[in-house]
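re the bet — no i am not wrong, look at it urself. input seq straight from the record:
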Amino acid sequence: MKRFHVHVAVDDLAANVRFYSTAFGMPPTVEKPDYAKWMIEDPRINFAISTRGKSPGVDHLGIQVDTEEELTALRAQVAKAEIEASDQKQTECCYALSDKYWTTDPQGIAWETYRTLGSVPVYGKSSRSVAKAISAACCSPASEIAEPAPSAKACC
């Protein structure tokens, strides 16, 4: 079953956790020093916030799926439409291990479609970073690979 995903970069995690916990009527499902996530059932949404973005606001959007078959089907739709997409297998980001692919819409908003495989103890790690839509933020599209930017916020 699919779940809509929204990731928002924030400048004050504690204030935003209080706000969204009140708005959603529940505490975060996952809360870390730099990240919080709510897995809401009605409507089905994976809403995450972190202090890892370049600037406050929408960091990226996406679709979370439960199975490899769902991920493969959605990736095939993008390929059929000849939309550029970048695959990331076994990537560690947002305290999770995932298979995912990224694309960017005409406005430049990054979209990820992913399947979570497990959890990891760190926000993200990688020897390379991405230089397209959100180059300084973790969990970004991998269509152009570059050496890591000199930013303390960079990861993935």
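see?? The helical segments are 13-24, 68-80. told u. also Residues 68-80 form the longest helix (13 residues). so pay up
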